[in-house]
Specification:
208 residues; mainly alpha; 11 helices; binds zinc ion
Length: 208
Amino acid sequence: MKIQYHREITIAALKSSFGPRALQSILRANFAQDSLRYQFGHDHFHFDSSQFDASYAYIEEQRRLVRVSLERGDRDSAWAAFGRLTHTVQDFYAHSNYISLWLDHFTGATPPPPPEVDPGLPEILRSPDLRSGKLYYPLEALTFVPFIGKFFVSWMPRDSHARMNHDAPENSPLFEYAYHAAVKRTRFEFEKTASMFASDLLPRFMDR
Ligand SMILES: [Zn+2]
């Protein structure tokens, strides 16, 4: 997912729950996951290359860090961990074929509009057909070059990140579905994470 959409998705999902200082910390940590040093060898940060188990383990590790950080009074670390978690779950819908599999349920009928997407259908999450785009470096790097990158996309294998991603509206007709699924999932992850620590810590986490 491109940074501008990570921003929009995170704000849409969380602005009613977090104060501005907390939201800024969460956004900063979310964006930092896409820094160059995390683009190589960190597939699990972005649900790339079908590294699903590693991505889920990473999400749960960040959730645990939110709780232990809050318990020791370190809200900055809690917001940062939650920001990293939001990045990974948002990338799931942009980098995997979850949305395509969901739309397959409506073959022959008109699918519901994007705001009605279900981001957590268990049979798709557990489906053997679920996969995410593979990064074919060094060729893949050419597809990230602004303006000219799109010309290299057609050279990439069908299972590549370049061919499979729904990172932006210009890259994929399924972007709107990925976007709305990511908003709903981010909201769900907030509620799940908040259920993991003592409720008296919640106002400190939300900082409203
Ligand atoms: Zn990412």
